[in-house]
Amino acid sequence: MAGRELISSVKYMAGTKPVFSLSELLPYLDEPLTIGELFRAISADLSPLGLVAKKAGEDYIISRIPPVQPYILNEEEEKRLSAFLDSRAMPAVLEGYIEQYITRKTGKDWTDPVSTERLRKAIVAQKDDYWKPAHRRSLQYSKGYSVLGYLAYHFPVYFMQTEHLLAQLARDGLLKKTMTILDVGTGPGVVPLAIADFWSRLDNAQASVYSIERSEEHIEAFLYLRDAFVPRGGNVSVKPPFKADITQPGSAALPEKIDLVIFSNVLNELEDATMDTRAAIVEKIAEHLAPDGTILITEPADEENAVRMRTLTAELQKKGLFVYAPCSFIWGTPCTAPRCWSFLSALYIRKTRLMEHLARCDEPYRYVNTDIKYSYAVLRKDGLRKSAYRVGPGSKFLRLSKIHLHVGKRINVAGVKMSGELGDAKNHLFKICDGTAKTPVYAVLPSYHETPENEALRTAPYGTVLEMRGVLVRYNKSHDAYNLLVSRNTVIQMPDSEIPDRDL
């Protein structure tokens, strides 16, 4: 029996019995094998299947690896976390260490006029480069003042963005008491430092944080900030980065059974990489993921990067990864929606001292970066989904792929809220997706039509499934999109099945 057929037999047996003896497989083999030969043939695949073997005399007992209990935030931890996020400010001590590093690297005080002007030029150059077409970019942030400019302009927002995402993972029960975490393309250590800061508010959790980075300049900044900011002997151990190119992750001696892999604003910078190449990078690193591990991918909120990230997650689904959030495939089919521009916003952060200093000039807006807007996806190997909702058989909800046939009619639809507020005080506007729409769809709620029966459209969190009854379909020719007009007679509800579930 070929190796793949052996594994299929093991998977079948594990699906029918929580515990079984390896000898029970022998009658199903096409070729006779001893227990030892059979074990050696399948042993490397047991852990990825979520199985464990225990020797029992001449036999082996195969059982499922018990799921690790999630780390649930207690009341005091939640208070500390909420207070920090509400402050909207990077820790002042970390601000100080960044200022010290700039002083150390330039040989002059961080407020020195010459250093200040060079920082401004580096920031402007990075921003100009970012807005070039993807094939003309050279986003490196890897030398001299480009790294210092990154610390001044990008670091604070990405640091706070990571804290928001970690809070979401914690509240969803995706963190564990003891974790191994990998940050891919860490730069000057934004994500590892945010992890250390986040974990400092947890009472009984520990983490070992690994990372990959190819730039010597970034690694130097990373280690300086780590040594200054992360307490030695604390509950978080931040390892020195593996010096490697993320396009060749096999060159790094990565740990096994990683609980959380983070790609933070890095895949978009691979300007020459095809979608297949990007998917292959994620897939290769996912080989090191624990059976119940999580992959978090974040990208900037602009249309090009956000749409590209959704395309990437669709490719990764074909390769055996499951989208946990924010997408929910409510019709039980893969996503077929193109042009998916979806992102999330958080409250703007407070300006750092360094930003305020750089902004003392004729064009202050160029050097202040306080908006948190990002596109993200959470993926898993085990099929865990944030929402168990599926449109039931015989339901009277219309697939959004059929919306063009119902312009001018009132319909019932179910979909996921895939944006924050895109409108204004007079007309609330939110993107709605059910995974089937060929053309973007938005729900529009005029303020004078707000009622308790339809307020869920405004109040439900990003990524929530909504059932909408009695919306009027309109086509917006100027934007090539469809609008679902919500009136005071529209009823919008969050279904009861907004609970985690697994695809089995």
The first-level CATH class of the largest domain is given as Alpha Beta
Annotated CATH topology of the largest domain: Rossmann fold
Please count the beta strands (DSSP E, at least 2 residues each): 20
By oligomeric state, this entry counts as single chain
Kindly describe this structure.
With about 500 residues, this protein is of the alpha/beta class. The protein contains 13 helices and 20 strands. It folds into three domains: about 5-65, Arc Repressor Mutant, subunit A (Orthogonal Bundle), CATH 1.10.10; about 75-300 and about 345-380, 3-Layer(aba) Sandwich (Rossmann fold), CATH 3.40.50; about 400-500, Beta Barrel (OB fold (Dihydrolipoamide Acetyltransferase, E2P)). It is about 30% helix and about 25% strand. The strands form four sheets. Strands 4, 5, 6, 7, 8, 9, 10, 11 and 12 form a nine-stranded mixed beta sheet that branches. The protein is globular.
Layout of helices and strands, plus pairs?
Blueprint: H1 3-16, E1 19-21, H2 35-46, E2 51-56, E3 59-64, H3 75-87, H4 92-106, H5 113-130, H6 144-153, H7 155-171, E4 178-184, H8 190-199, E5 206-213, H9 216-229, E6 236-238, E7 242-243, E8 258-264, H10 275-286, E9 289-300, H11 303-318, E10 322-325, E11 344-346, H12 353-358, E12 372-380, E13 384-385, E14 410-417, E15 427-433, E16 441-446, H13 456-459, E17 465-476, E18 481-485, E19 491-493, E20 501-502
Parallel strand pairs: 4-5, 4-8, 5-6, 5-7, 8-9, 16-18
Antiparallel strand pairs: 1-3, 2-3, 9-12, 10-12, 11-12, 13-20, 14-15, 14-17, 15-16, 17-18, 17-19
Helix pairs in contact: 4-9, 5-6, 7-8, 10-11
